[in-house]
Amino acid sequence: MSWRIITPVILLCLSISCKRETSKLTFAVGGAPSEIEYWAEIAREFTDSTKIDIILLRQPTDTDQRRQGLVIPLRAKKSDPDVFLMDVVWVSQFAASGWLESLDPGVETRALDLSKFFSSIVEQVDTYQDQIISLPVYNDCGILYYRSDLLQKYDIRPPTTWHELVHSATLIQEKERLKNPQFYGFVWQGAQYEGLICSFLEFITSNNGSIFNSSHNLVLPTPRNISALDLMKKMIHEHKISPPNTYTEMKEEEVRLSFENGNALYERNWPYAWGLHTRPESPIKKNVAVTLIPKASAGRHVAALGGWHVGISRFSDNKKQAMEFLKYIVSYAIQKKLAIDLGWNPGRSDLYDDTEIREKIPHIEVLKRAFENSVARPNLPYYPEISEILQKYINAALSAKLSSSVALAKAQAEIEEIVKRYHE
Amino acid sequence: MSRELKEAIIFIMPLVLFIASFILIPVLGTFWNSLWLDVPFVARKFVGLQSYFRLVSDEQFWQATLFTTTFALVSVLIEMIFGTIIALVLNERIRMRGLLRGIALIPWAIPSVIGARVWQLIYRYDYGIANWVLQKIGLASVNWFGSPLGSFAALVLADVWRTTPFVAIIILAGLQTVRGDVLEQAQVDGANMFQRFFKITMPMIKPIIIVALLFRTIDALRVFDLVYVLTGGGPGGATTSISLYGYKFFLLGDFGYGSTVSVILFILALVLAVLYIRIGKLRAS
Q1: Where primarily located (chain B) (predicted)?
Q2: Pick from B23, B233, B265: which is nearest to A1 by CB?
Q3: CB contact under 8 A, A392 and B237
Q4: A13 in a structural domain
Q5: Fewer CB within a 10 Å sphere, N or C end of chain A?
Q6: B265–A68: do the CB atoms touch at under 8 Å?
Q7: What's the total number of domains in chain A?
Q8: CA-to-CA distance for A210 and A378, rounded, in angstroms?
Q9: What DSSP designation does B219 have?
Q10: Going by C-beta distance under 8 Å and a sequence separation of 6 or more, which residues neighbour residue A64?
């Protein structure tokens, strides 16, 4: 096991030490092959207009592999890649490791205009020790998909509170089961993985709960968090509007397929599912609509934040050109191209009022409101460790192995150990 | 230096270099790494055995150790029993023996991640084959990965399916060294089938059984791909294996602690290997 990891690391380090001189920019980007091809085209256009050469460092689709592909050269202080995309949850770790160049000079000279981005996102993700260290290229957040035909059939309005959701899901599920025994009211991500944290964050925050309070103290076993986790459990075990495999198998794709095959009334998912739900061969293509994630009656609408942000390496040997390229990527024109050609939700907020984009992505109004109310996962360099522990205990609570209060108290104790370790 | 010695060194050198660069250096490097606080966002510092103390009070690590050892024990035991039975059958002069031997090896020839994906399609709650069969015979669907025991059993079954052929083929090789005339003589003397197996065949193939046990136990202790694909360590961390646990720390960026977990897994496998080889030698002499 250890050799399998260490050996490639050593080999890579050896290859990294053979440093080569280059005045070209290296841009690391991953994703689906078609997306990488699209980036190659954007890079070519940039080279044509600026005469700055770009080498595209093609990364895999898998998020964890993309992260490793960046961590290894950055740990070795390698000058390449100069510019790269980061998942929203890596940004603070990369910043705290001292790998990200401050973008403040660009902001000060007004080359980068922060007012064109969602302030909630820039504050929660792109700010580290009062400096701007990255900018959003692509925003992502949780939204609620629903079957417009079924709600119409039973004369029910899209839910705005969790109570309304449970109520209508129970009712419609009972009726629809007569025709389709596989039918469930509400499907969401509950398996033991990162997506579970996003679901959990939405449930607790919409109930006015939180993981850390405003003075940065860990506050997991609070009444608000416990009742939110109880609601998640009840949906599976008591109301039975969410299937039993919610906590064992339900990740994004499982949830999407269940909804798309007509087996669910409501679905919590990311905006990517829209394109798939509405493609010509989808069984529900005409009957899907989106709204904000419901809230507790005294709570507020929230959406867990995802997405990809662009940053410049502290070790880059071409910082000036790198800044040019970064500016280009977050420019109105390129962001619009990405939105229209790839269906990406722009990182810039001003594009959400663009008429062409509104035509292309009709539900962008809902997305805009979701981003304005977005809540990021804890912005801490050791967040991944916190996430691992939370995943384990929330999943244990969902499986009914632990009560909500015990699960959160245990998670609190274990996470406190970690916080202590890094703050001593 | 004599010419003979020089030649010997030249011939041995490639092997020594290979072992040193691909086994010795990584193992020592991992051990060295485990003595450091090695997290990218904190200044790297030497902490000695601190990570090992942390391990002792790490509940999840003990949970992973318990799961991994139980998994290895149960699955290897079942694989040895079934492997031996299959080997005995394939050693008989039956029709289409060559074809059967080939078919028996198929699960072992399938890459384990692909095998795990196939098992995922069997166990899936909503459209898995297992639940489809249950529904056809009028039973309710089962959420196979819903309980720790269910997940454990599902993982053991998938592992047994994949590696029993490996055990069978090794034991079959051993069986072919057992001389037929000895067994025939025993039969003439009135020994029944079980007596012949336990009194003659078993002792003769004992070294081979030890080899199969050694390979299988070490392999089972390192179980990663099956768990990674099928349960991801769930529900609630109940099926996290030691290697999956260590891997998660490498992913999180805690290279020091990840190395510590790997070192413990290495020591566990090493101790078992030495133990098996000792037992094998004692019996052989």
Answers
A1: membrane
A2: B265
A3: yes
A4: no
A5: C
A6: no
A7: 2
A8: 10
A9: H
A10: B251
